[in-house]
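Bug #77: duplicate submission created two jobs. Keeping one. Sequence:
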Amino acid sequence: MLEALAGWLLNYLLHSTALLGGAMLLERHPALQRSLTVRELMWRIALFGGLLSATAQALAPPLMAAFEQLPAEVRRSEEQRSVGLVLAAVEPAVDAADEMPPTASPVVDAKLAPGAVPTAVESAAHTPVPEPVSRQDVALGASFSNAAGALTVAWAIVSLGSLILLGLRLAALRWRVRRLSPAGEPSWQQAAQRLAGLAGLPTPTLRMSEGWHSPLVAPGGAICLPRWLAVKLDAGQCEAVLAHEIAHLLRRDPAWRLAGQWAAALGWLQPLNHLALRRLDALAELACDRWAAQASGQPQALAESLYACAEQIVQRRGSAPRLAAAMARPDSALLQRIRSLMEETPMEEGKEGLVAKKFKWRWLALGGVLAALFGAVAVPAVVLGKIDADWVLELQDGVSFHKGTRIVTNDQNGSTRVNVRGGDLHFNEAEDEIIGLAGTVRISEKRGGVHREVLIESQPGGALKKSYSVDGKAQQLDAVGSEWLKTMVRHMADVMVSADERVKKLHAKGGVDAVLADIEKPRSDFHRRARVEALLNLRDVGDLPPPAIERVLAAVDGMGSDFDRRTALVAMVEHQTLPAAQQVSLLRTTARIGSDFDRRNVLEALASQQADEAEVLQGWVKVMKAMGSDFDRRTAIEHLMERKPLGKSTLDAALQASSLLGSDFDRRTALQSIAPHLDMATQVESYVQSATRIGSDFDQREALLKLIERGPLDKSATLAILEGTPRIGADFELATVLKALAEQMPADSEVLSRYRKAARRLSDHERGQVEKALDRFDRG
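Kept job's structure:
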């Protein structure tokens, strides 16, 4: 099975490299530059063709072998069909000849007289039957086969993980789209209905998006439109945007994009797949631009909307989901698209339109795929010899359970291999001797130029037989060999005895110090972490003294695996009440973890008992600065805000951390979680400073509204908010903030003056609404 899979993988890499490299070269030919359809078809065949041709090549030999194993009568029938009607007519005669006694001369050996006409049976017997095509495959040596097997195992693991991640992303995207509010503008619905009718499609669902800054079509067919479209674009530009997105639906681009991501995930070893995906995205956008320009009759409006999308992406640093067909992305060829739209006849390919019911390109695609499949079956394939699964498994240190238990240890001085077959393995109290076994244990070590090996076999009655050898020569187990065997058995026990069992035994003998001494010994991250968890899970341990906690944290800090460090630290927080000094040590270790996900998990666990002390909060901020993911930073802030009560210093640290968030959505969400807990007398200014650094007017508005909702504002808080309003560029967003502020601010002359100054930037209509909000002071 592994050999077949490895052969398929190597052939896929060869086929896909040839197809994708050919597509890359052919696309540069001037004859193809004007034809979007041909180029897109070529790239699709190149992207998916390698998967299909390698599969066809792998399946061809088993199918041919299965045909050869059919009964002779069935094979003869199949072969006779290829001869023609003459054979079919004389088939009974052939059967009769087959039933002749052995002494009779076969008809096919009969001599014909000169000028005689052969009988039908003779003609059939002499008719040549085509021989099956024999493929001269390329066989690889054992060493290369083993390396290919190791590569295949790694490929399978990464591919499976990538496909699972792809499925999770798809589910998350569908869930996120379902949460979006429907687009309520009647003009949008009318335009969508008209354009969908022109394309011969049902009217798509329109939804309004807060976080995505470019229009897009999500899997499932919903069109997601950012709210800024209604503010920035006129009616013609909005219709052009809708036409572009409906073109994606007409072309089934969301499905093609998902299939492309699937192929890239499965073929992640092929770097040219990413080039193919980029080219297919670019060609799809050009084709949709063409249809949208024709359908709306406003190519200039579409070009202007593209420019507006690019401007929003640059300003807001937004990004569309990978699985969605977005109108504009940071890496899209916008300049080429705008130039094409502004031409007199934009991107036309003769008289073909996207909605024309012509199928010649489909037949061409089918012919290309069939040609690739037949060619793949005929050309030589790379085949692998027997792969040594043990060699593949022993490439790295660790414990596996392939045909038993296998322990592999490699270092610069040598290697150790332990193979246990069977069960009921028991060690003595000192764990340096095997006293019970149902099966075999083989221990092999190569170190210092000496190869020692021992085979321990169970015998009837419970006895154990030991066969010992040095450098391949059998000999008696002498004192040196016995000491070596004790060392090897201790190594086995260290790995094979469960962490819970070992920790209980050590704790019963020497208390926490004995367990900590064992944890501090050099060993794998997995076993060290397992023993830390076992110690913390002991019922009669309770809260460890600070020195013991420091020893555990030092042992965890010495681990190389982020997963093991995070798991051990979370267990420490969940089972221990940590003093402030030990929280500082824990945060110091957390900052040295490389994964943002693992750092965030530790911070979430610590949030419930995190001390409101300066040194602890400084350590917390350092961890936040070490993170690169806005999502993980924002989530950590939200978990910290769930504490009750929250000290002023903790809120100051959260506000400081919010300024690290580059994503408008994440910063706004983090600030909204902080706002209900603010000290309105001292922390409003810091909050507003963080909020006004948000690039999105919408997100900035939402953050300020959450603060204003706190209730009546004093003069200093109101002035701080007004100080930040000049950074809001959109009239609607600014007016919304000012109207909400008017309901909560005090009747102070300086406040009213600054309020009216902020309102002067608004249009007449919006300004009138903002001034009208001040009527409550006249009524008072």
